[in-house]
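step: validate -> pass
step: tokenize input -> pass
step: predict -> running
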Amino acid sequence: MIKVNYRTHGTARLLKCLSKEPISDTRLKQLDRITDSRLLGTVARMRIEKMAGYQEVLTLI
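step: predict -> pass
step: emit ->
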């Protein structure tokens, strides 16, 4: 089981640290497996942006 710090994985924080490289279709498909309601807003935004946030930056914001 993966532990997630929900404070650092919100949609607003994602937008502050987006990668410049797009997420591959394979990676986007993997988002389908995320079912935690606290992450669904972020997942939806990642699908729209087709970008991920840098985890290292998420912990600094």
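step: describe -> The chain has one domain: 7-58.
step: cleanup -> pass
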